[in-house]
């Protein structure tokens, strides 16, 4: 009889094999000589793969195998990585090493681990590919991932405004995301990701656990989907502040949102152009904008007010979900409330959340963290501390908000310690020029700003 594996004592993490048949991708991993961990990704009603797209599809599938492996690798973080189908070219190894190091930086920080110098994918020594892959002549239409929150809905409406053809896509089975996708009125594509059951067993046996760069996994799934179904672009809705680190720890930037940031976007875009198809674009449509600029745009999209939610308690794999769409206690609830407040009539905002979070003294610590007052920014997808301070300052100057407990506290206790010249809202509403939005979708940028 085989003895149960001790994940933290394993020596090798192995990418065993991957395959695809009839809409199901199988991604297989193992530690040492332990049992295989088999993840399945299910693509609904798949069309037959044309011979012209076969090579590109296989390249995208291979990348998905490598990227999705981050969910399993972190269970043991062994010192050696093996890839059964041979060593990688430099561009692929560079992308994966950056993703595993930075995408797992929060996981490492919380577990007291240092992954620097530990993550090394086998390399063939082939130079990084600078030559573009062949064009696939993909149909000019866009996959827009829906997350259930405000950002993806702003992206959807911007593409609709320029008459772009788009499909709302999501991975998993969240009823809230499905309801949001339906509200967009777009065609829908729902892909299922089934984690290997063995991962939960490893957790029971004492595996390392924590945050993984799930946006990277979903991005790789959508690259496969784009080739399979025929889309020339994947447009996420990751904002400018996703690139800002949460904190610095022992000389390393730790960013909860690294795989939503600009560095990852550039790495993946370039990789897809050189390894999959020169005409497959991956971008974030909202990259030029701050969270405050995006909430201002969302404040005009009233048909979504009763459908969206950014509250993370709705999206936990295990555990109870809140009865309504906003728990009112988590950093996401705090930030979305604060960021929308300058742009919505107060009664409208309170109707969305069902309460006034800024008139509740028990929420002080949560808002302090957003303001980076006596605390660092939360490990959540929230805006920069300076954005939160600008929003709070704006409210502190408005009579309808001034009497609320936490706004009054900000005026008396926090504001005197701040430089008022740094608190203007207006500079946050300008777009930056830094983005990788393809020419075909650039008109949508004007629809947002």
UniProtKB/TrEMBL annotation:
UniProt entry tagged with the keyword Cell cycle: yes
Pfam families: MurL_epimerase_C (PF26298), MurL_N (PF26299)
Record field: transmembrane: none
Protein name as catalogued: UDP-N-acetyl-alpha-D-muramoyl-L-alanyl-L-glutamate epimerase
The entry's keywords: Cell cycle, Cell division, Cell shape, Cell wall biogenesis/degradation, Isomerase, Peptidoglycan synthesis
Recorded metabolic or biological pathway in which this protein acts: Cell wall biogenesis; peptidoglycan biosynthesis
Protein's gene: murL
NCBIfam families: MurL_Xanthmoales (NF041275)
Record carries keyword Isomerase: yes
Family: Belongs to the MurL family.
Function description: Cell wall formation. Catalyzes epimerization of the terminal L-glutamate in UDP-N-acetyl-alpha-D-muramoyl-L-alanyl-L-glutamate.
Domain MurL N-terminal: 8-285
Source species: Dyella acidisoli
InterPro entries in the cross-refs: MurL (IPR043689), MurL_C (IPR058741), MurL_epimerase (IPR053538), MurL_N (IPR058740)
Reaction equations catalysed: UDP-N-acetyl-alpha-D-muramoyl-L-alanyl-L-glutamate + ATP + H2O = UDP-N-acetyl-alpha-D-muramoyl-L-alanyl-D-glutamate + AMP + diphosphate + H(+)
Sequence ranges assigned to domain MurL C-terminal in this UniProt record: 308-416
Enzyme Commission identifier(s): 5.1.1.23
